Amino acid sequence: MKIHIVKDNIEGAELGYSIIKEALENKSLNVFGLATGSTPISFYDRLTASDLDFTDVVSVNLDEYIGIGADHDQSYHYFMNEHLFAKKPFKVNHLPNGLETDAQKECDRYDAIIASNPIDIQILGIGENGHIGFNEPGASFDSTTEKVSLTESTIQANSRNFDSIDDVPRFAYSMGIKSIMSAKKIILFAYGEKKADAIKGMIEDTPTTDLPASALQNHQDVIVIVDEAAASKLTK
Ligand code: F6R
Predict the structure, then answer these.
(1) CATH number for the domain including 94?
(2) Is 166 a catalytic residue?
(3) Whose CA is nearest to atom 15 of ligand 1?
(4) Which residue of 87, 122, 132, 185 is 20 to 30 Å from 221, comparing CA positions?
(5) Is 91 part of a structural domain of the chain?
(6) Which residues pair with 226 in a beta bridge?
């Protein structure tokens, strides 16, 4: 893993932008794996403020809540439209369909999309408990797209975006850890002290399913972009 400690999320976004710019120039970014959450917003802002052209690029998002549709303002479809797609058109945007009630059908559909669109660069955030996508502690490193139950800590963390905690969906469709690991390059952003334990475990501790992001130690090309607070528990 290559670790970059940046001053703040603006500097992190600039670094992420320069990697994407170079990949587009080299024609090595055809499929772009994307994440939602508060962390990548500064990066998406940087992309939308640029003249980068994504009209030949396919996007594949990590996850979507189950039970809410694309027009719900807390759905990940809505988030992506707001923060990126409405301003930067892509060739095609793929996200799991949160309204599909047949989980097997939806997971198979999404795995087929990933198989026919191998991800060149995957953007990740990280949960306080070390989750990536919605792969919560205990998720198998061999997982592909699954219907997952959100843990209490993730429901708590995500409730900040909903009117009440009861409104937070309890299930999501998420790309699996194996699918994330199949990306050629991974860029993980993390900011703030709340992420410090997860970042320490991800980078320095022995990989364990108790901390899903630690699987990334087995990937050949991971760039970690963190601020000082998120890096504050690193010892090496
Ligand atoms: C979002 C996702 C999640 C978030 C994580 C961190 O698509 O897959 O794993 O990256 O929950 O969320 P924030 O950035 O809001 O702290």
Answers:
(1) 3.40.50.1360
(2) no
(3) 37
(4) 87
(5) yes
(6) 5, 190
CB 216, CB 3: distance < 8 Å:
no
Cβ(195) to ligand 1 under 6 A? no
Q: How far apart are CA 64 and CA 60, in angstroms?
A: 11
Q: Decide if pLDDT at 158 tops 90.
A: no
Q: Residue 218, Cα to own-chain centre: how many angstroms?
A: 18
Both tokens of 209, joined, read 């399913």
pLDDT of residue 126: 98
Residue with the smallest CA separation from ligand 1 atom 13 is 37
Q: Average the pLDDT over 197-208 and give the result.
A: 98
Residue nearest to atom 11 of ligand 1 (CA): 127
Residue range of the domain that includes 171: 2-188+217-224
Q: Is the predicted pLDDT of residue 153 greater than 90, yes or no?
A: no
Q: Which residues contact 216 (CB under 8 A, 6 or more apart)?
A: 1, 132, 181, 186, 188, 202, 222
> pLDDT tens digits for 15-62?
999 999 999 999 999 999 999 999 999 999 999 999 999 999 999 999
d(CA 206, CA 12): 26
Please report the atom of ligand 1 found closest to the CA of residue 174.
8
Check: CB of residue 126 under 8 Å from CB of residue 190.
Answer: yes
